[in-house]
Amino acid sequence: MSATTSDATAATPSSAPSTGRKDLRRSVREAERRAEQLHSGRSGYWFILPFAVVFLVFLVWPIIYGLWMSLTDRTLIGTNPGFVGLTNFIEAFGDPQVWQTLWQTVLFTLGSTVPLVLVAMVMALLVFTGLPGQWLWRFAFFASFLLPVAVVTQVWAWMYQPDLGLFNTWLGALGIEPVGWLTDPNWAMISIIAATVWWTVGFNFLLYLAALQAIPEHLYEAAAIDGAGSWRRLFSITLPQLGRTTWLVLALQILSSLKVFDQIYLLTAGGPNGSTRSILLYIYDTGFVNYRLGYASAISYIFFALIVILSLTRFFGGRKEA
Predict the structure, then answer these.
(1) Residues in Cβ contact with 234 at an 8 Å cutoff, skipping those fewer than 6 apart
(2) 36-68 residue pLDDT tens
């Protein structure tokens, strides 16, 4: 009995170092694993560093600097701008030109958004139904969107020429008096809207075509079994399935149209008599023609706030629908 006890007692100390060495090796491996994870996590920062630098330099800093500039009377010819607080914002809210150009921007947005949504949907439906030579139709509908704005405006300016333009030539062949497409205040905004629709409808067409191709085929098969015709399938299946895409296209188009500048600047420069002057063109004229950078910055931030409000309204409206 005593011999057995002494043997067990003698074996205990020898097993303790073995267990301790196992625990030590386990701790070392765990520490190495954590160190490796930490190192791999830190290495990821080097991949996002170039984007972070560009984001801070070209987006965050201009926003901060522009906000500070809107609180000063800075000009292009001044070297020591003074702090004026909210004076520029107060002046902007009382400036009739701000409200007039904002209203003309809204008119352009309403006039261009509706056809850009409806025409794009019709074009996508025509291609989706199986027109012969689909690749040609897809290319033709989308190709104009790939053109730069300078080319688009030059082509449409030629067609809008009062004497030799394509449209007035057609009108003359029909015995109708020529129209001042870009010189008549009643037609100038309509002419810009027409050029914009032709230029940008291809992007919306592509969104609608992708949405049509994502509609489950079994819905049409079930409707065909029930005896539904093509028009019934269109109004009961296709158009309801395009609801989310329509809201997306509508939101994107409104935000894009509110920021119109290029085609107006190149076609009419805001004329005739300011009838096509958008708010961004007024901001440009205020800052770079009249040299009032501080006041132009204040108008920019008022307009920016309106766009943010519209974006948030669409965002929360979309979440509610979801």
Answers:
(1) 125
(2) 665 655 667 778 888 999 999 999 999 999 999
Q: State both tokens at 75.
A: 């000009």
Residues 303 and 283: their CA atoms lie apart, in Å, by: 10
Helix axes 166-173, 149-159, angle to 10 degrees: 20
CA atoms 240, 241, 242, 245: torsion sign = positive
> What gap in Å lies between CA 117 and CA 138, rounded to an integer?
17
Q: Tell me the chain's radius of gyration from C-alpha atoms.
A: 33
Residue 27, CA atoms < 13 Å, CB-side half-sphere: 6
- The answer to whether the predicted template modeling score (pTM) of the entire model surpasses 0.70 is yes
pLDDT at 28: 67
Hey, which residues does 180 pair with through a beta bridge?
A: none
Q: Quick one: 242 exposed, middle or buried, by C-beta within 10 A (0-12, 13-18, 19+)?
A: buried
